[in-house]
Write a structure and sequence with these properties.
heterodimer; A: 320 residues; mainly alpha; MetI-like fold; 14 helices; 78% helix; globular; B: 349 residues; alpha/beta; 4-stranded antiparallel β-sheet; 12 strands; ABC transporter permease (chain A); transmembrane helix (chain A); membrane (chain A); MetI-like (chain A)
């Protein structure tokens, strides 16, 4: 098992290198270079060619592509992510500001949707054809098909404006920073963010569970005289869990990079809203960094999925 | 020995060796408001230390009969009529009256009556070790402690002829071969020394050499532990080899039953005769005449009125439009056919 994990991590390194190279290449292929982003077009028109070259030289832009990539990579590995061209702030500072907020939101949403999705899916499968199952199915369909900003606005209307139970948006008020102060702010955006995924996980868990329950070994388990909970959970759900974990795992990066809309609706100071403004202001270094981050999130998620599925299903562990 | 309660005044010694008796059992399936009479009035006894073979083609109700005894039927089916009586050491238990997955039924499953299934590839849970799956039975039916499970599991695997049981016990089913998995299944079934072992086509998914080994193993268990075996098969060769008693099923009825000699040597039902005639004989060469039974089994939702076999039967007469009664033609031999005398006489030729 340990060998399997180590091997999976080792495979990750060349993949990450290739992807970082592709992202860097993508930036290289965009018209202009760093200097043209730094100087306004008016100044560019009046500036002399020597001064531009001197500026390029001082930034190391005269060096060949691969050398620059190498220097950039070294910087990345040391945590030197460069500077935002829009505000001149170090990207490191921006990320350390924004990333925790996004992670907090995503982690809570992921937790909610996994727990609710699995529990409801299993109930739905065990009571197949019943009213409970039908209600859950219809609700699930609604959850998947209605866009999340709609739920977001409705939730704000009900819980923040009418009932005044929860704040309208934002992450923390100045001066309040204990763990408990996070709760009222995060609970509504996280729940709204998790609706679609809960519905997805629930539908998936239901069909996966039904599939598992129709297997011969469920009959074997019953024929041994095991109690129903053990048959359903240990023999049914454990097997049904593998595809569900794959689904949840591949939603993870979407949650990190893609909670753009919810972050806008709730004024949540996360990576998603930063990403939008970076794209708008053509802040390439920042866009590149966030893109790299979501790619890394995908890689990490697939690693996690592989490890978890190997833990659950011994047939996945290919090595002995 | 504990006194055995009998509902009717049957002779004591005649029934002391009966482990389970089934009387006029009817199990029906309901789909789309239609009813499939999968088992339609079946009676038989499973005797201690004997093997009862149930033969018949696909869909005749063999497996449903087995599932009914274990109360492992799907939700859309139920026991419509009849009695299943398990003669336990502590008196008779009417299985048909127990709640399906209730505590009483669960305490019988696995410990008193165990079952092995057709396909060992799918009957074992792929995500648990063989040892774990054996110890699950031990956990619910024995007083063994957690630390003893493993020792007992190893012991069982060794008894079933699995080499290196000490390391094999921690393996997952996917690293076992088909024959080994079936041995592991039998180990699991035998773990709590059940009085009755129901084997539902245990070797259909295995190749012939392994088949022979599995049957040898089952025969050994029967002799050593006095386990009553109910073996479901469609292989007449297996019947001749292993059975003490045979019941031939067709469309939910036992059309003929008796000792293995009676049924195989002197078949009195046209279906039994046809089954026996359709077996190719090794050594007769490729030009031998294998007589397939003409036609196919009727649609269970659209059954013939009288004898279910009538449409395919060479002995058909007008009387066959009425379902024949069961006729006792010997102390153990019974048949459901209007013309059993003629069929029997022909067979004797």
């Amino acid at each position: 098992m340990l060998a399997y994990v180590i091997r999976r991590i080792l495979i990750l390194i060349p993949m990450a290198l290739v992807i970082s190279f592709l992202v860097y290449l993508g930036l290289e292929l965009t018209p202009g270079d760093a200097v043209s982003h730094m100087i306004s077009p008016e100044m560019m028109a009046s500036i002399s060619a020597e001064r531009l070259d001197a500026l390029r030289e001082s930034l190391g832009l005269e060096q060949p592509f691969f050398v620059r990539y190498w220097i950039w990579l070294q910087g990345m590995l040391q945590g030197n992510f460069g500077y935002s061209t829009a505000g001149g702030v170090s990207i490191h500072t921006i990320l350390s500001d924004r990333l925790p907020a996004t992670l907090e939101l995503s982690a809570v949403a992921l937790l909610f949707s996994t727990i609710f999705g699995c529990v409801l899916g299993v109930i739905s499968a065990l009571k197949r054809g019943s009213t409970t199952d039908n209600v859950l199915t219809v609700t699930g369909m609604l959850g998947v098909s209605v866009p999340e900003f709609f739920f977001g606005l409705v939730a704000i209307l009900i819980f923040a404006l009418k009932l005044q139970w929860l704040p309208v948006g934002g992450r923390l008020l100045p001066g309040y920073d204990s763990y408990w102060d996070h709760v009222p702010h995060v609970i509504m955006p996280a729940l709204v963010l998790s609706i679609m995924m809960t519905a997805g996980v629930m539908r998936y868990a239901r069909s996966s569970m039904l599939d598992a329950l129709s297997k011969e070994y469920i009959k074997t388990a019953r024929s041994k005289g095991l109690p129903e909970w053990r048959v359903n959970l240990l023999h049914g759900f454990r097997v049904a869990l593998t595809p569900v974990i794959v689904l949840i795992g591949f939603r993870l990066p979407v949650l990190i990079g893609g909670s753009v809309i919810i972050e806008q609706v709730y004024q949540w100071p996360g990576v998603g809203s930063e990403f939008i403004s970076a794209v708008r202001s053509q802040d390439y270094p920042l866009v590149m960094m966030i893109a790299l981050l979501s790619v890394m999130a995908v890689l990490t998620a697939s690693l996690l999925v592989d490890i978890l599925t190997a833990l659950i299903d011994p047939r996945v562990r290919l090595d002995k | 020995m504990l006194p055995i309660q009998r509902s009717k005044g049957d002779a004591m010694n005649e029934h002391q060796d009966v482990a389970l008796s089934v009387k006029n059992l009817k199990t029906f399936f309901y789909t789309n408001k239609r009813c499939n009479k999968a088992v339609n009035g079946v009676s038989f006894d499973i005797k201690k230390g004997k093997t009862l073979c149930i033969v018949g083609e696909s869909g005749c109700g063999k497996s449903v009969t087995a599932s009914t005894i274990m109360q492992l039927l799907p939700t859309l089916s139920r026991i419509e009529e009849g009695e299943i009586t398990y003669h336990s050491e502590h008196g008779d238990i009417r299985i048909d009256q127990l709640e399906r997955n209730g505590e009483k039924m669960r305490s019988i499953r696995g410990s008193e009556i165990a079952m092995i299934f057709q396909d060992p590839m799918t009957a074992l849970n792929p995500v648990y070790t063989i040892g774990f799956q054996i110890s699950e039975s031990l956990k619910y039916h024995t007083d063994l402690s957690r630390s003893q499970y493993r020792t007992r599991a190893i012991e069982l695997l060794r008894d079933m002829g699995i080499s290196l049981p000490e390391s094999r016990v921690d393996d997952y089913p996917h690293s076992y071969s088909g024959g080994m998995r079936q041995r592991a299944m039998i180990a699991m079934a035998m773990s709590c020394s059940p009085k009755i072992l129901i084997a539902d086509e245990p070797t259909t998914a295995l190749d012939v050499t392994i088949q022979a080994q599995i049957f040898e193993l089952m025969d050994k268990l029967k002799k050593e532990h006095g386990t009553a075996i109910m073996l479901i098969t469609h292989d007449m060769g297996v019947v001749a080899e292993l059975a003490d008693e045979v019941a031939v099923m067709y469309m939910g009825n036992i059309v003929e039953a008796g000792t293995v000699d009676e049924v195989l040597r002197n078949p009195t039902h046209p279906y039994t005769r046809a089954l026996l005639a359709s077996i190719p004989v090794l050594g007769k060469g490729k030009n031998q005449n294998v007589e397939a039974i003409p036609g196919s089994t009727p649609d269970p939702y659209d059954r013939p009125k009288g004898c279910q076999f009538a449409d395919r039967c060479a002995y058909r007469i007008a009387a066959c439009d009425v379902m024949p009664d069961e006729t006792q033609i010997g102390s153990t031999h019974r048949v459901m056919c209007w013309r059993h005398e003629e069929v029997g006489a022909n067979a004797a030729e």
